[in-house]
């Protein structure tokens, strides 16, 4: 299975059974909330999402590779475990850079909304 197919499968089952073997040990990760380096930290982030949020769905809209970078467009949805069970949606995109061994060395997520807009989804009027 090639890297594009593996990523598609990971999105379909996110955050369960992710293919961590496609990432370099010192992978760089950044999104609008956090930034770090290291596969163990990346696994911890995914574990946190899996354990804390409910009904998680990562919908892949588009995926393409341009040279050493895979671009994905997606929408991440979940239910936050607050008493009123708010449903949160973050549309965004990722840039996954690969090394010559086809391992992902950089995973940067961007959102089509602000952090404030995500917070407001937790407290609807």
Automatic annotation (TrEMBL):
SUPFAM superfamilies in the cross-refs: NTF2-like (SSF54427)
Pfam family, one: DUF2358
Record's protein name: DUF2358 domain-containing protein
Organism for this UniProt entry: Euhalothece natronophila Z-M001
